[in-house]
Amino acid sequence: MATRPDNFDRFHTLAAIRPPRLVVAIGWMIGIALPLVLLALIFVPWVQTAPGRGQVVALDPQDRVQQVTALVPGRVERWYVVDGQLVKKGDPIARIADNDPDLIARLAAERAQVAAQIAASEQAMATARIDVGRTGQLFADGLAARRDYEAAQIKVAEHAAKLAEARAKLAKADIALNRSSAQLVRAPRDGRIQSLNTAAGATLVSAGDWLATLAPEDSPRVVELMVDGRDVALVRAGQPVRLHFEGWPAIQFSGWPSVAQGMFDGRVRAIDPSAQGTGLFRVLVEPSPGKPRWPDDNYVRLGSKVRGWIQMETVSVGYELWRQLNDFPLEFPTPVDTGPRKGAGKGLADKVKEKKSDAGKEDEEAK
């Protein structure tokens, strides 16, 4: 605080304890800073956010990492791929050899035998039907007994049953032959071989055992964020989201999105109706149209960690500090409709509604 020099002659003690220049400067700084801080707390805006952590996933389940399994039991005879190799749909991955090398030949011979039985049964059935017609004519002329006519009909039924049984055996033989012919395991879609179960080459494998892991490439990506249950109630589809991908340099100011650097834009696509095992809710975030594209697949791969901030309402800095100090929920513009009530809550709501309607009627009568 400035003081006229001639006044110090009257106050000798005050003149003796004149404050240093540094203290005076600090006092001026504090006196100017406090009002500025107060004005900033009142007037500077701050965007509230619902934070969450998650990872990059493929939107289509067919585009996610999948396991290639053995279709038949046996032993891996040959690998056609190595780790990290690109494959197209239908490319061979491995060949499985059965314990019996002559299995397919024996199944083919068995099928041929069943097919011959079917042909013989069809010929016998045709002959039996002719016999039924001939015996029926003789029976009508009185030259054959009823017993002979009924016996001919029984033979037709027996041949029909044998024919149906043979056709069932043929279907089973075809199924066994097709399964055994599936010894060549092929890639279900385009992608890259991520890992191979090399131990399967030295041991027997069963149908359904894992052989290789296939990771599709160039698949549409989304981000799944795990958000706290207190914040997810205010999250709606279409809300803007700011994303920070792991390994990508960025400077984040959650309350001032325009100041942040290295962040990417997204929007809420969907919210899970139920919580995960950890008690958090999954929120799917897709790229925001009209904004800069997310980093390329070479930089942000499937499974990469992500931090996200779902943007909510804009409040003052002072209000946000007060909210966080008191651990209050985020601000929402309109009351949330909780839907129809049940039990005691419904009865209380009905009573309040009746009181309001009665008060309205009394006001109308008074007018």
TrEMBL record:
Coiled coil ranges: 149-183
InterPro entries: MFP, RND_pump_MFP
Swiss-Prot/TrEMBL keywords: Coiled coil, Membrane, Transmembrane, Transmembrane helix
Membrane-spanning intervals of the chain: 21-47
Gene Ontology MF term list: transmembrane transporter activity
Location of region: Disordered: 332-367
Compositionally biased spans, kind Basic and acidic residues: 348-360
GO-annotated cellular components: membrane
Annotated family: Belongs to the membrane fusion protein (MFP) (TC 8.A.1) family.
Protein name as catalogued: Efflux RND transporter periplasmic adaptor subunit
Naturally occurring in which organism (per UniProt): Novosphingobium olei
